[in-house]
Backbone:
C-alpha cells in the first residue's frame, strides 16, 4: 500500500483504502465486486491484507451482488463494491434483496462519479436508495469512510437490510488521516433455512413488501436519533444542509453558518430537519447532482433553496460552492476578474485528451476498421479512446457490453452499405458480452465481433479476470479461453490475430466482414503497461529519409510527434525514445523505411 | 509559507510522469511533521497521457481536499503547458516551479494543411511571470538523465519543491525511503538532492547581496563539518560513492578524506551508510 505510518495508529489512507480497512475491522468474510473507477482500489487494498477473508473479482456487478447476498444469507458479513453504473447491472438483485433482507451484514459500496471523470454518465446513487428503500450512508472523508462502515454493519443487522455506502470520486481518491482500530476475525453464523424470507414467490413477496414498509418506518425513527446526522450550531442567519465531501467545502467557505450534516441519507430525519429549518432565517441545501434532499424537504413543506444556486451538473469544488453562495447573496460577489492573467496572455490552452498508450495493441485494429469504412459499435474500456482523432474509428459507446447487441440493431436497422463491427475488450466481454453474442449467433446476424483481448482489465489499472489465469490475490486460477468459448457457442468464423501484424489484421478483418453470419476476430497481444511493462528497443526516425507522409501519425501514438523540420509543407516526425515501447507498428507503416530500431545504428539517432 | 493556516501545494503534469508518487511523498513528509494532511487526485481514464493533478493541503486542520483557485502557495508543474493550465490556482505572491521539458501530445500534431504549426502554446514562461513573480523554470529531465534514469524526473522536481518548503532535509529523505521501491531509494535520494541543490544554487545567484529572505532554507548551505574517525575507517569507499556532492575522496592510504567540506549539503548519507560508524556530520 502506498501509505506510511506516522504513529502505530494513524495512517494516510484514500477513501477506498479506508473502506477496505473498515471491512477488515468489522469482520467481513466475503468481499467481491467488479473493477470500476473510482471504486476499484477497495478490493485491491483488501486483497493486500494477509487475512483469511474471501476476496474476489466477479465477472460483473450482478454476479458480485449475488455472491454477497449468498454470503449474507449464509450468515457471514459481506461487502460488494462497484461504480455507480455497475449498480444498474446489479439492480435486478438489489431491488429484490431489499425485500428479503439478510442474516448478516451486507454492505454495498457504490462509488459515484460526479463530473464524469471516468464514466459514461453521472447518475446519483441516492436515487437508487430511495427507489429500493434501502438505507444509504454518506461519509465525508477517509476517517468517516472507515467509521461509517461499522455503522453500516450495525444498521444492516439491526434492521435486517442491505445497506448502501455511497462514495464519490473525490472521497474515493482523496487521502486523509485515519486512526486505525483492530482487525476483527470473521465469523459465520449457523445456517437456518427460512423459505418465507428468502424464496420470493409471489405469496412471500407480498408479505416481504409489508416488511419493507415497516422497516422504513423504523429507519425513519432511527434517523431522528442517530449520530450519523449532526447538527452543528452556528449563526442563525444561514443554515446549510449538506452531506458527503460537500460538507467539507461548506465548512471551509462558511465557517460560521449553522450546518446540518447528513450521514444517513435515506431515510432523512425530517423532524430534525424541520427543527433545524425553524432555527435559521434562511435554509440552503448544498448537494452534488440531484436535488434528493431538497425535494424531500419541499415535499414535507419545509422551505429550502438549493438547485437555483448549486447546479445539478458536474462535480462540486470549494470554488463552485463559493460561487453558489455568492449567487445566493450569502457572500459578496467577487470583484471583476483581472484580465492580465496568464491564461489570457496565451490565447488557448493545450488540448491534451487521454490517448491510447504507445505500443497499445488496440491501435492497429481500429486503424484497419477505419480503412475498411466499418460502422463500429464500441464498448467500455481503454479502446474507447480510439474515438479521438486521428483514429476516430468508433461510432457508438454506450454502456458495458452494449457493443454486440447494438451491432445487431445497427445491422438489422441500417441501410446495409457499411460492414457492421462490434469491438469489445476481454474483461467487458466476460462482464456482459456473452449473452449478446449468443443473440447474434442465435439469430444469425451478419456482424463482425472483434474481441480486443489484452489479457487484463486495463482501463481501471490492470485487474485480473476470468481470462487471465490469476485471481484477485494473484494466485493461479482457471482460465476461460475466449476462442474456445466462441466456438462452443457455435460461431463458424473464429480467428485469432496478432494486432501488431498490420497486414494480418487487415486480411483477417477483410475476410471477417465478408463472412455470411457472425464472424469473431480475437486480437491477442497483452496490454503493454499492465500487469507488466512490455518494452523492447525503442524506434527512431532518420530525419533525412522521412518524407513527412504522415502515415505513422495516423496511429495517434503519443510517442510520435512533429519536428519543426518540414518537407513540402508537412512536418517531419520524431519518436520520443523514452515513451516508445518498441512495438514496431510505425516502422511497418513507414513507406520510406525511415523508422528503424534506435540501437541498430546509433549514428543515425535523431535524438 | 505562512506558519498558520492551511498550506496548499498543487502538483500537475501528464499521465506517466509520476505526479501521484511525488504528492504521496509530500503527504508523508507533512504527516510525519505532525500536520493534518489531505490530498486529492483523479485516477482512471485521465492517466492515459492526459492531464494529471494532485492537490496537497496540510495544516493544523484541513477541510476541503481540493485547493481553491488563487490560493495555492506553490504550483509544481512537470510540464510547461500544464503550468499554464493550472497557473490560476496560484495565489498572489505564490511560487511556480516548472520543468522546462515539453510534452507535446498527438492532438497538437493534427493540422495537415500546408505549413500548419504544431499547436503548442508559445511564450509560456513570460505569461507565467506576468501573473506570478516567482517562477522557477529548469530542465528537470536533464538532471534526471545525468543521474542515469529519466524516470527520476519526479524526484528531481520534488527536490526543487523542497527548496521552498519549511521541512528539513531528513524529513524528505526519510519519506522517499519509505515510499519508493527499496532498490531505487538511493537513486531517488540522489535525484532529489540534484533538484534541491539546483534550486538553492539558482537562488544564491539571484539573491540581492544586502538581503537574504530565504534564511531558513539557506541554512542548509552553511558548510557543516564532516569528521572521519581515521582509525575506524577500513576504506570500503561507500561514503565516497554515495556523496552526491563529491565532498569525500579516498586518500593515498585508502582512507576516506574530506576534500570539499563547503559543498556538503548535510544529506547525511555518508554518516548513515558507513558500516563502521566512522563518519560524523555536524
Residues:
Amino acid at each position: 500500500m502506498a501509505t506510511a505510518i506516522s504513529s502505530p495508529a494513524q495512517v494516510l489512507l484514500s477513501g477506498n483504502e479506508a473502506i477496505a480497512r473498515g471491512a477488515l475491522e468489522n469482520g467481513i468474510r466475503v468481499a467481491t465486486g467488479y473493477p470500476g473507477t473510482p471504486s476499484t482500489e477497495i478490493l485491491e487494498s483488501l486483497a493486500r491484507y494477509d487475512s483469511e477473508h474471501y476476496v474476489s473479482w466477479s465477472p460483473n456487478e450482478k454476479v458480485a451482488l449475488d455472491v454477497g447476498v449468498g454470503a449474507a444469507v449464509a450468515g457471514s458479513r459481506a461487502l460488494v463494491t462497484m461504480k455507480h453504473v455497475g449498480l444498474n447491472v446489479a439492480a435486478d438483485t438489489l431491488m429484490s434483496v431489499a425485500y428479503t433482507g439478510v442474516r448478516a451484514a451486507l454492505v454495498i459500496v457504490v462509488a459515484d462519479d460526479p463530473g464524469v471523470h471516468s464514466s459514461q454518465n453521472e447518475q446519483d446513487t441516492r436515487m437508487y436508495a430511495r427507489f429500493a428503500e434501502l438505507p444509504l450512508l454518506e461519509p465525508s472523508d477517509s476517517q468517516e469512510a472507515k467509521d461509517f462502515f461499522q455503522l453500516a454493519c450495525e444498521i444492516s443487522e439491526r434492521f435486517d437490510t442491505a445497506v448502501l455506502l455511497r462514495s464519490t470520486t473525490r472521497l474515493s481518491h482523496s487521502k486523509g488521516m485515519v486512526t486505525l482500530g483492530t482487525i476483527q476475525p470473521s465469523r459465520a453464523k449457523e445456517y437456518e433455512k427460512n423459505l418465507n424470507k428468502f424464496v420470493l414467490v409471489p405469496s412471500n413477496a407480498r408479505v416481504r413488501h409489508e416488511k419493507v414498509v415497516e422497516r422504513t418506518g423504523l429507519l425513519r425513527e432511527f434517523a431522528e436519533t442517530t449520530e450519523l446526522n449532526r447538527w452543528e450550531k452556528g449563526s442563525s442567519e444561514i443554515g446549510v444542509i449538506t452531506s458527503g465531501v460537500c460538507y467539507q467545502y461548506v465548512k471551509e467557505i462558511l465557517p460560521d453558518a449553522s450546518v446540518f450534516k447528513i450521514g444517513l441519507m435515506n431515510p432523512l430525519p425530517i423532524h430534525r430537519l424541520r427543527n433545524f429549518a425553524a432555527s435559521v432565517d434562511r435554509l440552503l441545501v448544498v448537494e452534488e447532482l440531484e436535488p434528493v434532499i431538497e425535494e424531500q424537504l419541499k415535499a414535507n413543506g419545509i422551505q429550502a433553496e438549493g438547485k437555483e444556486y448549486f447546479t445539478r451538473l458536474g462535480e462540486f469544488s470549494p470554488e463552485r460552492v463559493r460561487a453558489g453562495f455568492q449567487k445566493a447573496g450569502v457572500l459578496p460577489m467577487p470583484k471583476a476578474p483581472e484580465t492580465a492573467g496568464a491564461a489570457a496572455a496565451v490565447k488557448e490552452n493545450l488540448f491534451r485528451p487521454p490517448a491510447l498508450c504507445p505500443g497499445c495493441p488496440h491501435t492497429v485494429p481500429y486503424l484497419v476498421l477505419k480503412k475498411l469504412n466499418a460502422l463500429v459499435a464500441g464498448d467500455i474500456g481503454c479502446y474507447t479512446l480510439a474515438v479521438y482523432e486521428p483514429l476516430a474509428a468508433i461510432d457508438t459507446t454506450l454502456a458495458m457490453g452494449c457493443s454486440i447487441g447494438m451491432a445487431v440493431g445497427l445491422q438489422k436497422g441500417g441501410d446495409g452499405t457499411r460492414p457492421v463491427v462490434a469491438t469489445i475488450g476481454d474483461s467487458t466481454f466476460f462482464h456482459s458480452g456473452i449473452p449478446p453474442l449468443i443473440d447474434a449467433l442465435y439469430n444469425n446476424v451478419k456482424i463482425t465481433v472483434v474481441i480486443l483481448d489484452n489479457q487484463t482489465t486495463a482501463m481501471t489499472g490492470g485487474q485480473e479476470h476470468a481470462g487471465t489465469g490469476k485471481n484477485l490475490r494473484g494466485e493461479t486460477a482457471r482460465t476461460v479461453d475466449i476462442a474456445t468459448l466462441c466456438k462452443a457457442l457455435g460461431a463458424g468464423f473464429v480467428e485469432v490475430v496478432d494486432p501488431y501484424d498490420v497486414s494480418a489484421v487487415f486480411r483477417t478483418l477483410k475476410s471477417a466482414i465478408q463472412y455470411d453470419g457472425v464472424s469473431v476476430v480475437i486480437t491477442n497481444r497483452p496490454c503493454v503497461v499492465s500487469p507488466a511493462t512490455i518494452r523492447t528497443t525503442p524506434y527512431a526516425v532518420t530525419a533525412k529519409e522521412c518524407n513527412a507522409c504522415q502515415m505513422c501519425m495516423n496511429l495517434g501514438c503519443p510517442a510520435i510527434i512533429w519536428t519543426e523540420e518540414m518537407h513540402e509543407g508537412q512536418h517531419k516526425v520524431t519518436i520520443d525514445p523514452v515513451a516508445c515501447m518498441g512495438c514496431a507498428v510505425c516502422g511497418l507503416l513507414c513507406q520510406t523505411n525511415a523508422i528503424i530500431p534506435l540501437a541498430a545504428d546509433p549514428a543515425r539517432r535523431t535524438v | 509559507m505562512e506558519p498558520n493556516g492551511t498550506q496548499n501545494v498543487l502538483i500537475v503534469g501528464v499521465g506517466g510522469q509520476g505526479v501521484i508518487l511525488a504528492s504521496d511523498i509530500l503527504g508523508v513528509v507533512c504527516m510525519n511533521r505532525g500536520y493534518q494532511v489531505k490530498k486529492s487526485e483523479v485516477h482512471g481514464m485521465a492517466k492515459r497521457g492526459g492531464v494529471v493533478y494532485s492537490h496537497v493541503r496540510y495544516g493544523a486542520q484541513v477541510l476541503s481536499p481540493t485547493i481553491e483557485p488563487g490560493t495555492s502557495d506553490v504550483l509544481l508543474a512537470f510540464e510547461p503547458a500544464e503550468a499554464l493550465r493550472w497557473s490560476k490556482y496560484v495565489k498572489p505572491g505564490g511560487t511556480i516551479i516548472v520543468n522546462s521539458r515539453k510534452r507535446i501530445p498527438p492532438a497538437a500534431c493534427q493540422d495537415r494543411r500546408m505549413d500548419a504549426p504544431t499547436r503548442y502554446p508559445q511564450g509560456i514562461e513570460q505569461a507565467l511571470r506576468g501573473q506570478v513573480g516567482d517562477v522557477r523554470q529548469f530542465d528537470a529531465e536533464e538532471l534526471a538523465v545525468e543521474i542515469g534514469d529519466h524516470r527520476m524526473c519526479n524526484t528531481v522536481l520534488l527536490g526543487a519543491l523542497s527548496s521552498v518548503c519549511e521541512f528539513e532535509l531528513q524529513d524528505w529523505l526519510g519519506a522517499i525511503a519509505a515510499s519508493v521501491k527499496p532498490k531505487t531509494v538511493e537513486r531517488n535520494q540522489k535525484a532529489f538532492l540534484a533538484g534541491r541543490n539546483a534550486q538553492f544554487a539558482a537562488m544564491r545567484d539571484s539573491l540581492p547581496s544586502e538581503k537574504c529572505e530565504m534564511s531558513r532554507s539557506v541554512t542548509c548551505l552553511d558548510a557543516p563539518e564532516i569528521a572521519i574517525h581515521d582509525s575506524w575507517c577500513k576504506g570500503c569507499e561507500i561514503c565516497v560513492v554515495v556523496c552526491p556532492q563529491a565532498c569525500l575522496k579516498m586518500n593515498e592510504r585508502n582512507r576516506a578524506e574530506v576534500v570539499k567540506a563547503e559543498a556538503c549539503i548535510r544529506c547525511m548519507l555518508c554518516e548513515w551508510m558507513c558500516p563502521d560508524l566512522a563518519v560524523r556530520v555536524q
Summary: Confidence is low (pLDDT under 50) at residues 1-7 of chain A. The longest helix of chain A spans residues 202-225. Chain A has four domains: 10-225, 230-327, 363-523, 539-604. The first strand of chain A starts at residue 5 and ends at 7.
